[in-house]
């Protein structure tokens, strides 16, 4: 587990309503539906809840459980189902253009009885196969993907995509992102033909980036989408201020080295736990909200990453539920967005009825501004973060903008920090900025310069 972060911690106040996007824009987010628990509601109840009460529009299963697949019939929710790792060798075919009998049988059993009533949109061939170091599985992975794709086409389901999720252990280098490259020995033998398959079938290369498993005390804010100095990539001149984006760009750099930078990337798993072992700093409800809310906001923004501008990423948050039977540290049982009774573990704006809450008015309005004793370096870092990867609209402090004057770092930082605070969800920790931000109930607007609310 990562080492402890700095001891100072912002006191958590009751969470405020998170508006990830304008009400006219539809969220698109997926969840991983694991069932390693003895207290979960029946699949039909889960499917109805997701359809009627949430913005979740896609679900990833770690198997092909027929009861769960059947439960999503008629919901319109897209489903990713998974072939067990052990089935991979039998699915492979010696002829890349023809399916194996096992692949045809797998489709007949796990797809044909349910599709199109259940919107099966993607089949994952195994899960993190290269991390198993099983040479037999690895050697048969790409042939199995080809064979299953051929079986789907032959059965009349050519629109169902085929992929396989990867841990970031597939990379031999990733920091800074421009150095990203696949592990030697696998790059040309496994990933080049796999990426060629994805290009030809127009299917996504699926990765599971987890900043949670890569942060240190020094990089906690960098992992949680919070203001931080960033990590500079000298080869590209980009200063990365969150680890998730850096990890995606490291994968993209590895793909570009093989000539497949045009292949789509999807995020099969990523998330942050809301509880951990006693004294485990960096694991709390506040931290889970910070990571998952900003993650959802980012992947829906269409902003993309420095290496992939303008892209949206099909993303599945881990996980749908807190799974009480998962082994390992306490955190493993607290990745869920929802509790077993279908109540939210915390608010990241996924509940449809949350948009019906009344907007704050009068004294309940709050703004975020810079503290008077913030250093010039802190102020500049806050501007760079809020107006950069933080996604705030900072047009008003550009030359000629309504808030350009007074042309001081303190004034510009206060405007930028508030713009970020308002857009990110108006949680107290959105105004932390390493201790250089403070909330105020006094409107800091002046003249023609209006601070966002």
UniProtKB/TrEMBL annotation:
Lineage: Eukaryota, Viridiplantae, Streptophyta, Embryophyta, Tracheophyta
Catalytic activity: Hydrolysis of (1->3)-beta-D-glucosidic linkages in (1->3)-beta-D-glucans
Keywords on record: Disulfide bond, Glycosidase, Hydrolase, Secreted, Signal
One Gene Ontology term from the biological process aspect of the record: carbohydrate metabolic process
One GO CC term, this protein: extracellular region
Domain X8: 366-451
Enzyme class: hydrolase
Regions annotated as coiled coil: none
Pfam families on file: Glyco_hydro_17, X8
InterPro entries with a match to the protein in the record: GH, Glyco_hydro_17, Glyco_hydro_17_plant, X8
Main location: secreted
Family in the record: Belongs to the glycosyl hydrolase 17 family.
Protein EC: 3.2.1.39
Listed GO MF terms: glucan endo-1,3-beta-D-glucosidase activity
Protein name, as recorded: glucan endo-1,3-beta-D-glucosidase
Subcellular location: Secreted
Signal peptide (UniProt feature, chain positions): 1-26
């Amino acid at each position: 587990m990562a080492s402890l972060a700095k001891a100072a911690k912002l006191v958590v106040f009751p969470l405020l309503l998170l508006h990830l996007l304008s009400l006219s824009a539809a969220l698109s987010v997926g969840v991983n539906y694991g069932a390693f628990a003895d207290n979960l509601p029946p699949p039909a109840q889960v499917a109805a809840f997701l359809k009627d009460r949430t913005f979740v529009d896609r679900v990833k299963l770690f198997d092909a459980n027929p009861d769960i697949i059947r439960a999503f019939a008629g919901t319109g929710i897209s489903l990713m189902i998974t072939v067990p790792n052990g089935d991979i060798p039998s699915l492979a075919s010696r002829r890349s253009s023809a399916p194996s009998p096992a692949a045809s049988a797998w489709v007949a059993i796990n797809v044909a009885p349910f599709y199109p009533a259940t919107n099966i949109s993607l089949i994952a061939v195994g899960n993190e196969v290269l991390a198993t170091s099983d040479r037999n599985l690895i050697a048969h992975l790409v042939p199995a993907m080809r064979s299953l794709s051929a079986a789907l086409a032959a059965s009349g389901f050519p629109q169902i995509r085929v992929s396989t999720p990867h841990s970031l252990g597939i990379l031999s280098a990733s920091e800074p992102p421009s150095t990203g490259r696949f592990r030697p020995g696998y790059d040309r033998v496994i990933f080049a033909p796999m990426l060629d398959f994805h290009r030809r079938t127009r299917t996504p290369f699926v990765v599971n980036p987890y900043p949670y498993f890569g942060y240190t005390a020094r990089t906690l804010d960098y992992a949680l989408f919070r203001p931080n100095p960033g990590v500079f990539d000298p080869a590209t001149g980009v200063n990365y201020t969150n680890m998730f984006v850096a990890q995606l760009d490291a994968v993209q750099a590895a793909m570009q080295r093989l000539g497949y930078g045009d292949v789509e990337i999807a995020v099969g798993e990523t998330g942050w736990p809301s509880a951990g072992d006693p004294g485990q700093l960096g694991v709390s409800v506040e931290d889970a909200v910070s990571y998952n809310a900003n993650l959802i906001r980012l992947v829906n923004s269409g902003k993309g990453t420095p290496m992939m501008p303008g892209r949206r990423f099909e993303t599945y948050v881990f996980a749908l539920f807190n799974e009480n039977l998962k082994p390992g540290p306490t955190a493993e049982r607290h990745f869920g967005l929802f509790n077993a009774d279908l109540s939210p573990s915390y608010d990241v704006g996924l509940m449809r009825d949350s948009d019906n809450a009344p907007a704050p008015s009068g004294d309940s309005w709050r703004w975020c501004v810079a503290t008077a004793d913030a250093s010039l370096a802190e102020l500049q870092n806050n501007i760079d973060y809020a107006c950069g990867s933080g996604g705030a609209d900072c047009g008003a402090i550009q030359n000629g903008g309504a808030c350009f004057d007074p042309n001081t770092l303190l004034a510009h930082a206060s405007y930028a920090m508030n713009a970020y605070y308002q857009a990110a969800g108006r949680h107290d920790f959105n105004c932390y900025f390493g201790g250089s931000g403070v909330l105020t109930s006094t409107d800091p607007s002046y003249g023609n310069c209006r601070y966002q609310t």
